[in-house]
Amino acid sequence: MGKGEVEFIGEVTEVDGELSKIVLTEKACPGLLRIEEHSHLYILYWFHKRDTPKHRNVFKVIPRRHGETAYRGVFASHSPSRPNPIGLTLVELVSVEGCALTVKGLDAFEGSPVVDIKPRSSRDPS
User: Fold this and answer.
1) Buried b (16+ CB within 10 A) or exposed e, 57-87
2) CATH number of 7-47+85-120
3) At 125, is the pLDDT very low, low, confident or very high (cuts 50, 70, 90)?
4) By three-state DSSP, how is residue 109 classified?
5) 43 phi and psi angles, rounded to 5 deg
6) 93, containing H or E segment
7) d(CA 69, CA 92)
8) d(C-alpha 47, C-alpha 51), whole Å
9) DSSP letter string over 18-59?
10) pLDDT tens digits along 9-19
11) Under a CB-based contact definition with an 8 Å cutoff, are residues 114 and 8 in contact?
12) What is the pLDDT of residues 52-101, one digit of tens each?
């Protein structure tokens, strides 16, 4: 397998309880056209605090956060330690102001780079 390249399109700039603010780059900002037509969005973001060789080489984890004590494969978990540290969260769109989105339910930290944004489709499972 080869390697790809990811260009970050923005950053999580604020986290306040359930609400988070995402600010897109000037280049990516036109991609928000008509985003307000969607109530929910998938946010793909980079686990920047886990982007180390140690965390990228984890393939088995014990999800202690969920009270488990047995190993499972990283692809069968929500662990932030992964070969490609990409997070995915379905969020509710609260507002759009220029190149900034306010969303509810994002589980990323302030400073997390944003990889992509996709609207939830009516074909997606609820």
Assistant:
1) ebeebebeeeeeeeeeebeebebbbbeebeb
2) 2.40.30.70
3) low
4) coil
5) -110, 120
6) strand 86-97
7) 33
8) 6
9) TEEEEEE-TTTGGGGTTGGG-SEEEEEEE-GGG-SHHHHT--
10) 999 999 999 99
11) yes
12) 999 999 999 998 776 778 999 999 988 889 999 999 999 999 999 999 99
Amino acid present at 67: G
Element (H, E) at 94: strand 86-97
For 108, the token pair is 């990323």
Tokens of 47: 């686990």
Q: At a CB cut-off of 8 Å and minimum separation 6, what does 28 contact?
A: 9, 10, 99
Side chain identity at residue 75, one-letter code: F
Q: What is the DSSP letter of 74?
A: G
14 close to 110: Cβ distance less than 8 angstroms = yes
Q: Annotate 57-71 with DSSP letters as a single string.
A: T--EE--GGGT--S-
The amino acid sitting at 83 is P
Angstrom CA distances, 102 to 29, 60, 96, stand at 14, 34, 6
- For the chain, give every residue range classified as CATH 2.40.30.70: 7-47+85-120
